[in-house]
Specification:
alpha+beta; 15% strand; single chain; 670 residues; six-stranded mixed β-barrel
Length: 670
């Protein structure tokens, strides 16, 4: 074969044995099937038996949830099956061209009837939702890296604080600041090299596993993957060294006297505290904890910031998963408000394979609704790639969509107004930019072999065509279009209905159509994007990372505080304050920071989620105006409870170290 197709393990398929077949994922969705199982293919009464060999994928093959299934068969089997079709569907052939001048091919195709051209950018639109997961994973990785550097800063600060005496002695002996800092840099370099080596080795299987989460429909990889990983590892080591050098600048402030005072200079607050013990209604433990936070705002602000990032890792993923199964997204697929969506390949076959096949599909829907006595309206969204000309510019990758049926669609435009007449059209910003057109300009589009002139009335958002899309008015005569894509059939039931009533209607439709591809609107969005489940998996990973990072930060900071406050703790014990009160004081400081982080994260999660989702959507389509959806119980209750709970128990375990400090340690106070 000239064109490469790949199996599910990304191995190139060299050929297909006679009597066997490969298929796309959509063919075996929700079917428990194993390699070697036998299928019967019925062609107008003739039955053929073929053995299942597995899934296949290719650059030009749509593999999304709503795509039609494809079979890859032996040429002899194909010839035998084809001759038995009584009314064969229109067939097409594909030619693949390598050229330095793609525009010349496009111009030639524009003057040739029945020929359409798709360039590399158009082909990429097949994988828009797979790429969405990849972009979101990249954003999560950035948050994790930022958190890691905060943890590194805590570690370095704690190490220097533990070694005040040693640093003071070295300065007393005349050793310069740069030499002392180099001692730390060498130590951190050794740690960084070992850590980077372990991380590099662990990344090889981990990266492969992560790629599989976003490459079910794609073949991803790199010929220089190991080399790039080594270069990235070296760059990370260099970045860590630079960061460590900056974090050791505190060494310059220390003096030989610190060898005696352990870093204490005898300085006190330059201003009065915001709290007054005499006027406070708090218990002494609570007062001391809150006063410590207000007296050292910088260090507790950093802790709060890190806790906030940890919290946002969980809540942003949760909001993203909820949004990407939200009914609001259907408008970006140009589907009207509805209660039920049918995405069954058998029901949509004529739509995707026959000229004017949407007429047969509409008749099927009307008959179905009459037979089941369903009172409501229906709509059908279909689209096709069109050649569009504006002035001297012609583009072949504009995806025209049409909404037909009794349930009218009200297009929301970002600018201008929705098309109302049959010669009006709204286009995405990407499509307008590629044509050099603006609202009010006229364009010419070739649809189903006929040329139509449109006036542009508005700019809209769309996931179709990788963002290069247009939508006509409901009055446009669709003609003999063969759909290249569809969001299925939408049904809006008359009156108000409970979720259970809608589910009952869905069950009736599934039984009648002998399929399980009938969904509520929310489930339909989840099915089309196939991203929500992936984000839920990432969310669970984020929760695990949040627990680990929170515990690590709390342990490091609490040990640092205990080392720094050893004399104060000893003095408190000498005054008769019990261990329990001291431990609870230290715990409450972190809990206060965690509560503040939860408040900040709860206020920021929705605007941040909306910003992230709109940014990611703009990378894979031309979409703006997505409002983040959320589960209040999960974002405002479960996630904060997890963070505060982990902080409480982590700081409690770390604070137990204060028991080792005795009242006699006051002897070391200067």
């Amino acid at each position: 074969m000239v064109i490469k197709y790949f199996d599910s393990d990304n191995n190139a398929i060299k050929g297909v044995e006679k009597g066997c077949f490969y298929c796309t994922n959509t063919f075996t969705q929700d079917i428990d099937v194993n390699e070697g199982d036998e299928f019967e293919i019925n062609v107008d009464g003739f039955v053929y038996k073929l053995k299942y060999k597995g899934h296949f994928k290719g650059a030009d093959i749509q593999n999304g949830a709503s795509a039609l299934p494809y079979l890859l068969v032996n040429s002899e089997d194909f010839a035998a099956i084809k001759k038995d079709f009584k009314n064969p569907a229109p067939s097409f052939k594909m030619m693949y061209i390598n050229t330095d001048d793609p525009q010349a091919i496009i111009d030639y195709a524009n003057n040739t009837e029945g020929v359409n051209v798709a360039d590399r950018e158009t082909t990429k639109s097949i994988y828009i939702f797979d790429m969405m997961v990849a972009y979101i994973m990249m954003a999560v990785s950035i948050i994790i890296m930022l958190t890691a550097f905060f943890v590194l800063r805590f570690t370095i600060g704690f190490t220097i604080q533990e070694e005040y005496r040693e640093i003071g002695v070295m300065k007393a002996l005349g050793i310069g600041n740069s030499s002392i800092r180099c001692l730390y840099i060498v130590k951190y370099l050794a740690i960084a090299v070992v850590g980077a080596a372990v991380g590099f080795i662990a990344s090889l299987p981990l990266s492969s596993t992560m790629l599989k989460t976003v490459s079910e429909n794609m073949v991803l990889g790199s010929e220089n993957g190991i080399v790039l990983s080594i270069i990235s590892t070296i760059c990370i080591i260099g970045l860590i060294m630079l960061f460590c050098y900056l974090c050791t600048r505190k060494v310059k402030k220390l003096s030989p006297i610190d060898a005696v005072r352990s870093g204490q200079t005898g300085e006190r607050f330059h201003r009065r505290s915001l709290l007054s013990l005499g006027r406070s209604k708090l218990q002494s433990t609570g007062f001391l904890a809150l006063n410590d936070v207000l007296s050292a705002p910088k260090q507790f602000l950093i802790i709060t910031l890190v806790f906030t990032l940890c919290m946002l890792m969980m809540t942003v993923m949760s909001s993203g998963a909820d949004t990407l199964k939200s009914p609001q997204l259907m408008r970006f697929f140009h589907a009207p408000d509805s209660d039920i969506t049918i995405i069954d390949s058998a029901t949509l076959t004529e739509l995707m394979t026959r000229e004017g096949g949407y007429k047969i599909t509409c008749e099927k829907v009307e008959d179905l609704m009459d037979e089941l006595d369903i009172d409501g309206k229906y709509s059908l969204t279909l689209g096709t790639q069109s050649n569009v000309t504006h002035g001297d510019i012609t583009r072949t990758n504009i995806f025209f969509t049409f909404v037909i049926g009794t349930n009218k669609y009200e297009l929301q435009c970002d600018e201008g107004s929705a098309p109302q007449k049959k010669d009006e059209v709204a286009m995405t910003g990407y499509a307008l930019e590629s044509l050099g057109a603006e609202i009010g300009d006229r364009i010419t589009a070739e649809i189903a072999g006929k040329e139509h002139e449109f006036i542009i009335t508005g700019k809209c958002s769309s996931f179709f065509g990788g963002g290069y899309a247009a939508i006509t008015s409901p009055d446009f005569p669709v003609g003999d279009v063969i759909a290249n894509g569809s969001t299925g059939i939408q049904i809006k039931l008359s009156g108000d209905h409970t979720e259970k009533e809608i589910d009952d209607v869905i069950k009736q439709m599934c039984d009648k159509l002998e399929t399980d591809k009938v969904y509520s609107t929310s489930d339909a969005v989840k099915f089309i994007t196939q991203v929500s489940d992936s984000l839920n998996a990432i969310k669970k990973l984020s929760m695990i990372l949040t627990v680990i990072l929170t515990v690590l930060i709390v342990l490091l900071m609490e040990r640092s505080f205990i080392s720094k406050e050893k004399s104060e703790i000893a003095l408190m014990k000498a005054m008769g304050i019990q261990n329990g009160s001291i431990i609870m004081q230290h715990v409450l400081r972190f809990v206060i920071a965690a509560v503040l982080a939860c408040i900040i994260a709860s206020a920021a999660v929705l605007p941040l989620s909306s910003l992230l989702l709109n940014w990611v959507s703009s990378m894979i389509g031309d979409v703006s105006g997505i409002d983040a959806d959320f589960s209040a119980a999960e974002i405002f209750a479960a996630a904060p409870a997890l963070l505060i709970g982990v902080t409480f128990f982590g700081s409690l375990i770390a604070a137990l170290h204060t028991k080792t400090i005795k009242a006699s340690d006051t002897a070391s106070i200067e």
